[in-house]
Amino acid sequence: xxxxxxxxxxxxxxxxxxxxxxxxxxxxxxxxxxxxxxxxxxxxxxxxxxxxxxxxxxxxxxxxxxxxxxxxxxxxxxxxxxxxxxxxxxxxxxxxxxxxxxxxxxxxxxxxxxxxxxxxxxxxxxxxxxxxxxxxxxxxxxxxxxxxxxxxxxxxxxxxxxxxxxxxxxxxxxxxxxxxxxxxxxxxxxxxxxxxxxxxxxxxxxxxxxxxxxxxxxxxxxxxxxxxxxxxxxxxxxxxxxxxxxxxxxxxxxxxxxxxxxxxxxxxxxxxxxxxxxxxxxxxxxxxxxxxxxxxxxxxxxxxxxxxxxxxxxxxxxxxxxxxxxxxxxxxxxxxxxxxxxxxxxxxxxxxxxxxx
Length: 357
Fold this sequence. Notes:
The chain is of the alpha/beta class. It is 53% helix and 18% strand. The longest helix has 37 residues, at 28-64. The two termini are 60 Å apart. Residues 1-62 have low confidence and may be disordered.
């Protein structure tokens, strides 16, 4: 609109000068000169406007588009926080902070709130959704089949999304990264640290499908190593203390998988198990930091970075989310909690890295 008004104004000015030239007699030469200058100004103005618009188009073509990314995180704790931060950092590094707006929302552990958050993202028609943790991913699956969705901190996508014979690619509008650790190696680590233990309690939240998958897998591996295993499932944080007390009273060692409810309540678990002298092997570093003695864990920040790089490819059109296989953490590290190990009189062998406070 601004370009059109400039051209009209210049044209009108030129016409007025030409009119004066036709009526002016002895002033016709001056009028003619003025008309020529007016025409030149009009041409210059139009050229400048055209160049500016062309430059804007070139900038957009060079990657100056702006994007809105919705982030739904199930609950606040170290692992999920790190994954979200890694995701954001990777996208900002690739696209520039000025080109990306993050709508970051936390469901405070409530799966129903995840659905509300996802629905708000759909209403806003965001360009991409990050679903951080299983409940967030399940809400995204139910909420949209159009907007690209990337999951992270999700252990097993086939279990989480109800896909039989999962082959590594979800298809549709969903992909992402998995935090699945080698569960048989976690079981082997428990055996390495506690070879004389007899009874292992599997403490987990029954509302988290991926937790059930983990304890089932670890149970099978531990039983092959000669342990007797018992499930200790709590439905939410309200009955966690009671179930943890039962486990601590009956078991030599407790295994806690990568479980969001447990991760948010490690203080409760530690206040029960440490005084009882019962060590905990944890599925991930955040839980180990709060209540465990050791873990075979991934870097959730690095996992988030990997997810962010996937997001960049989707936003820029380099990759189609429907064709992107689930990606996994590239490496795992044996770590131990120095404070709890000291309190329980446990000495870890070489090859373990201390978890920093």
